[in-house]
Design a protein that fits this description.
Four Helix Bundle (Hemerythrin (Met), subunit A), 5 helices, mainly alpha, about 160 residues
Length: about 160
């Protein structure tokens, strides 16, 4: 009887372990990357020197701070569309956000809204992972641009820094 109980316990543990290792769904993978991309951009927003928020790679390009406001615009779009609202891309005006603290606060708020919409409806309102997929791709492109702003200023982006052990 004791042996049967032992086998039952082992079988239960094996089944529980197998269940926990099931592959993630597309929505779960998208959610993980969406959250990670926004977290990296927010880390950059907090890390980049305030006196360089107005830096532009070229005069006709957005400044570092402007790019962050633009990314926030995408998150606002994702949160509204993710809740099923009829929405079009409404670009937030970077002139309304003065200084690093206001831009970081805007970005944090937009990320929280987008994350809440994604967590509540991970496959999107039409069950095709939109709008989160488009906004995630958009944000990832701008992450790369922000890396260029770091490098042009002789700075190392947070994700490229050596990790302490």
């Amino acid at each position: 009887m004791m042996r049967l109980a032992g086998y039952t316990l082992l079988l239960t543990a094996a089944l529980a372990s197998a269940q926990s290792k099931q592959p993630k769904t597309s929505a779960q993978n998208l959610s993980a990357v969406f959250h990670a991309t926004n977290a990296q951009i927010l880390e950059m927003a907090k890390d980049f020197p305030e006196d360089k928020y107005g830096f532009r790679l070229k005069p006709e390009m957005r400044s570092f701070g402007d790019v962050l406001v633009h990314v926030a615009s995408g998150n606002v779009f994702a949160s509204k569309a993710g809740r099923g609202e009829k929405v079009k891309w409404d670009e937030l005006d970077s002139k309304n956000y003065h200084g690093k603290a206001e831009v970081v606060a805007l970005l944090e708020k937009s990320i929280a809204g987008a994350n809440a919409a994604l967590d509540a409806n991970p496959t999107g309102p039409t069950k095709d992972l939109e709008p989160f997929l488009s906004v995630m791709e958009h944000s990832a492109e701008h992450y790369g641009l922000l890396v260029a702003y770091y490098r042009a200023n002789g700075l190392v982006p947070p994700a490229s820094r050596p990790k302490s052990k």
